[in-house]
Imidazoleglycerol-phosphate dehydratase
Amino acid sequence: MRKAERARTTNETDIKLAFEIDGEGKADISTDVPFMTHMLDLFTKHGQFNLTVDAKGDTEIDDHHTTEDIGICLGQAFLEALGDKKGIKRYGSALVPMDEALAQVAVDLSNRPHLEMRAAFPQAKVGTFDTELVHEFLWKLALEARMNLHVIVHYGTNTHHMIEAVFKALGRALDEASSIDPRVKGVPSTKGML
């Protein structure tokens, strides 16, 4: 089974995370960052993963450390769960509407971490959540999972809807990229490795 667990304890956060690629969209998420909890639920459901997260952090300061460290743990668990990457599709993309917002995510599980993000959120906060943390989370996810991740929010007026579309598209794109294609022999690269 393609799954992995991660634990990370620092002076700022305490995180336990379990991730399964070939899941059923089951999420058991407990964080002290409610908006991130909501986004991880959406990501899990739309990616058909199984994800358990128990995360506590110094949110009396702000949500930065908790959000960043969840991204680190999820990226590491995703990379480990992929294993040797034999037979995966490698590439995935999704275009997802959420009411008036439209987001697109494209991913390459290339072992070359990069984040390219084009999103102009109209509001700096959704509730108490700083919207700049979306970039922070995605960058740490891409870095630790060693993926090339492109995120474009084409348009939208409601910041919540725009971010929600991103997380749904992220789940769907990663589901596609991590899927096993029986036609693929070895890893999908002319180099013979990823």
In short: The longest strand covers residues 13-20. The first helix runs from residue 34 to 47.
